[in-house]
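Aggregate trends can hide what the representation actually does to any particular protein. The sequence in question and its structure tokens are set out directly beneath this paragraph.
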Amino acid sequence: MSGKGSAPRPIPDYKTYESNWDLIFKKEPEMTWNMVEMDVLRWSEARGIIPNSTSKAQLKKAYEELDELSAAIDTRNIVGIIDGLGDVLVCLINVAALEDLDLTGCLKAAYAEIKDRKGYMNADGIFVKEQT
């Protein structure tokens, strides 16, 4: 995680992920999203992020991580994409916690809002909702 104006963080070596590939991507019933979310929250609390940061600061960090994710997508760097998606999710979990919410509840609310939405895919590959 690099700050604005600082040198970019080195891209993790593929071996970092390869050695844990089964753990990371294998669908194991005992490792649910909620369990990972709680692990992230414990990690954030142990490092003083939850008690000392703000949702605005964590959102700013998420923007920085989105920039790194965008760069990884541009270069088709799968390790960078994995790292970027994970980092953005960590930041969003922290934002939700700092707002006394949980990201799963936010996702459920968003899905409930869009599940019956109609629209079309534009030329740029973006879904445009039908005006009601």
Observations:
- The chain has a mean pLDDT of 85.
